[in-house]
Design goal:
about 120 residues
């Protein structure tokens, strides 16, 4: 963000979208030894919220996408090594499946689009 904001301040506009998994909003039950990971994601959310308030008056929108469990190599490893815990987490997904990277990308593109100029 430091380097993005430098350019956006000069041009007087911009959109930044940070990504944090659901663990950035709440710790996930059933996944041991994830405290440091979740703490770092809580930091992403805090940074996003603070920067959004600070830079909104300068025409720079800052948001975060906080998705559920996405089918990534890290999650594949967790499914393999923590199968019981992950089965419960996947079962709790409202949509009933893992998310896909292209679905997250679509949300990010939407947040960066000019039609979303009031969302921060």
């Amino acid at each position: 963000m430091k380097h993005e904001l430098r350019q956006m301040r000069e041009q007087g506009s911009g959109a930044i979208v940070n990504c944090s998994p659901l663990g950035g909003l709440v710790g996930l039950v059933g996944l041991p030894e994830r405290a440091a990971y979740h703490a770092s994601k809580h930091g992403v959310i805090g940074l996003t919220r603070s920067a959004a308030v600070e830079y909104a008056p300068r025409g720079i929108r800052i948001n975060a996408v906080c998705c559920g469990v996405i089918d990534t190599p890290m999650v594949a490893d967790m499914v393999e090594n923590q199968a019981e815990a992950m089965a419960g987490i996947i079962k709790e997904q409202p949509i009933g499946r893992l998310g896909r990277a292209d679905e997250v990308a679509a949300a990010v593109l939407w947040l960066c689009s000019p039609g979303v100029g009031f969302v921060t």
